[in-house]
Amino acid sequence: MQLQLLPTSHTFFTRFSLSPFIHRNPNMTSGSNSLMWFRKGLRIHDNPALEYAAKNSNHVYPVFVIDPHYMKPDPNSFSPGSNLAGLNRIRFLLESLVDLDSGLKKLGSRLLVLYGEPSDVVIRCLKEWDIKRLCFEYDTEPYYQALDTKVKNYALENGIEVFSPVTHTLFNPVEIIEKNGGKPPLSYQSFLKLAGEPHWSISSPPSTIPPIGDLGNLEVSEVPTVEQLGYQDFQEEYPDPPLFKGGESEALRRLKESTNNKEWVATFEKPKGDPSAFIKPATTMLSPYLKFGCLSTRYFYQCIKEVQQEVKNHTSPPVSLIGQLLWRDFFYTVGFGTPNFDRMRGNTICKQIPWNDDDELLAAWRDARTGFPWIDAIMVQLRKWGWIHHLARHSVACFLTRGDLFVHWEKGRDVFERILIDSDWAINNGNWLWLSCSSFFYQYNRIYSPISFGKKYDPTGAYIRHFLPVLKDMPKEYIYEPWKAPLSVQTKAKCIIGKDYPKPVICHDDAIKECKRKLAAAYELNKKTNGVVSDEDMKKLRRKLVEDQGQGNDSRRLKQKLI
Q: How far is residue 308 from each of residues 76, 265, 297, 311, 439, measured CA to CA in Å?
């Protein structure tokens, strides 16, 4: 690999494609101390940063920092966990760290766990351990960009070499954006044309890692348990056994299990699949391992390519498994290159829409109390498992936003971001923008019905009965619309609607029409203003929508009188 020197006076992008960009200290002697800073990329296989740290070093310090921003218990959150992460994801992360520690021990090292604000902790480590080489995987998320800038600036000022390869994605977002004239491509097909074929090779895991040196005065610990982090035993909240076990070992086991079924891998076709399948979900179930980097995206890509070489009749992007990895890269690239990608205001690719600010409807959706069994069952699965099928995600996201409740997509995004084990900043925001018809997809007349969509896959309601046992005895004729069941049927099923299970929070047929009316008006305003919608424009639109709604109600009442 060729090395290229970077300027040493200002903030820069450290990147990796055909060759990694590094800041290199020409005076650094062979045998200096290296620090391997783990954040994502929690693996030994295909880890160029770890491989580089292990080369020509006397000592390597593998570090993970428990970040209170992410891990501190929040007793006021709507479910166990921190303010930003549910307990399922925290548990998965801790299991992944335990597995990483085990893998490092087999190579003669171990994981050093420290606590605190990550950039401050890492800078203390650089000072205390006389580190001359800092290695970590590049991260495109804004939070990590800010952390990394602070740490890299310190390293540059103190002659510390920085090696930060882009290995969490197949392509380098910086290079894709440069190829597109400084702007991210806003369609999947344009992204594919710019990206072409990846040109990396899988990094070989080190056969051994140099030992850890003197730890000095820094307080270092083993990987903590959830109890040691301040959480109560979560078995009571989550009675089902965890669906996912964190760690590289489990990721590679699941990958092998998936790719052994070569016909399934070759013919995989999204969006096909059954969102109601819960005994054996109809996907690879590898997304949490890709999110935390327990599984290398590049290695996964290579394994799929090998299967496709053996099975000639295979699906192609955008619906194939390779296509799903490319969708992931697409959202990473757009998210990285779009200011305020995670919000509506100030986001130039996002339609400005006067969403409802209704915390009661949001809470009913979040807490599985909408009165629509298909939606509520999905939200129960989400809370218990920390995972739901992609079509289930589509269903509940559409219902919350443009389909029925017209609640702001940012509110739903926050719930997914906290509860999903595989929550990924770029993908989560990208999907909510898409499913709310705020960006990428604009056919707002096409919705996921909270009644007929689930029924198409599961006409008897087995999925609903599993996750909403209060409805387990409801006849299949009423399982998707229990409010239509006669009182005698409800009584026999031991489920009185409005008492044992909620009445619907809205009338679906009326809600669809109202959402479409509001979206049509919002789209017209965005077109008229060329997407530059002021606060005053939005206020006027809200007033007009309220007035039009009132006139519509008056007309309907008059029509009923005439009839």
A: 49, 8, 17, 5, 33
Q: Taking residues 524-528, what's their average pLDDT?
A: 97
Task: Give percent above pLDDT 90 in the chain.
Answer: 84
Across the strands, what pairs with 36?
62, 135
Q: Collapsing DSSP states into helix, strand and coil, what is residue 540?
A: helix
Residue 417 near residue 382, CB atoms below 8 Å: no
- Using CA atoms, how far apart are residues 359 and 394, in angstroms rounded to an integer? 21
Is there a binding annotation on residue 327? yes
Single-letter residue type at 282: A
284 is in an annotated binding site: yes
Is 328 assigned a ligand-binding role in the annotation?
yes
DSSP for 457-520, please give it. H-TT-HHHHHH-GGGTTS-TTTSS-GGGS-HHHHHHTT--BTTTBPPPSS-HHHHHHHHHHHHH
pLDDT at residue 557 greater than cutoff 70: no
Contacts of 326 (CB under 8 A, 6+ apart): 170, 188, 191, 192, 195, 317, 318
DSSP string, 51-103: HHHHTTEEEEEEEEEE-HHHHSB-TTSSSSBBSS-BHHHHHHHHHHHHHHHHH
Beta-bridged to residue 66, according to DSSP, are 115
Q: Is 8 marked as a binding-site residue?
A: no
> What is the total residue count of the chain?
563
Q: In this structure, how many other beta carbons lie within 10 angstroms of the beta carbon of residue 222?
A: 13
331 is in an annotated binding site: yes
Let me know: does 84 contact 132? Beta carbons within 8 Å: no
The pLDDT value recorded for residue 269 is 87
Which residues are CB-contacts of 315 (< 8 A; sequence separation ≥ 6)?
Answer: 266, 267, 268, 269, 321, 323
Q: Are 57 and 31 in contact (CB under 8 A)?
A: yes
- Block residue for tokens 């939005």: 538
How many beta carbons lie within 10 A of that of residue 11, not counting itself? Answer: 12
pLDDT the model gives residue 343: 97
Residue 406 assigned as binding residue: no
pTM recorded for the entire structure:
0.91
Cβ(285)–Cβ(294) below 8 Å: no
Q: Distance between CA 73 and CA 467 in Å, rounded?
A: 27
Does 164 appear as a known binding residue? no
Cα dihedral sign, 9-14-20-26: positive
**Residue 218 to residue 388: CA distance in whole angstroms:** 41
Please determine, for residue 24, whether its predicted confidence score (pLDDT) is greater than 70: no
Confidence of residue 314 (pLDDT cuts 50, 70, 90): very high
**329 annotated as ligand-binding:** yes
Mode of pairing for the β-strands spanning 57-66 and 4-5: unpaired
